[in-house]
Amino acid sequence: MKGSFEQLTGDQLAAEDLRQDTFPLNSEYICFEPSYNYIFGWSIGYICLENTGDRDVTIAARQRYLAVSPNPTTYTLKPKAVKYFDFKGHWCFEVLEGRAGDLVIQDFTTFGGEGKHNELKML
Questions:
Q1: Which of 12, 18, 47, 105 is deepest in the core (most CB within 10 A)?
Q2: Alpha-carbon span 26 to 10, nearest angstrom
Q3: Domains in the chain: boundaries
Q4: 13-20 long-range contacts, CB within 8 A, separation 24+
């Protein structure tokens, strides 16, 4: 698994993206690299999350560097659940309920996604 990941607060993410009005500042975020960028578009990547905790964790997909972040689609990972999500472009996960520290990235790539796992509407 290649890639860089970080857990940020809303304050840190807003400062990094230079957009104070886009991300709720009191939330936690799981940030990851964008999908591979070709000259005329993005490839489809994927990320696999596992909830290692004993409580549900609800996440929302947020696109990075947008002036306005639309109402995101949410997904709840049950305890010990593993789920793949495809994505195109630059995204992060906002943790709406539960603990961000319970989420572990099990697999990740910036290309090679099939577009089959679009529950969070990141394509």
A1: 47
A2: 6
A3: 5-109
A4: 13/92, 17/64, 17/65, 19/65, 19/66, 19/67
Please give the Cα distance from 63 to 51 (Å, whole number). Answer: 22
Of 39, 24, 27, 33, give the one whose Cα is nearest residue 6: 33
Query: β-strand 41-42 against 82-87: which pairing, if any?
Result: unpaired
CATH classification for the domain delimited by 5-109, as one of 3.40.190, 2.40.128, 2.60.290, 3.30.450: 2.60.290
DSSP 8-state assignment for residue 98: S
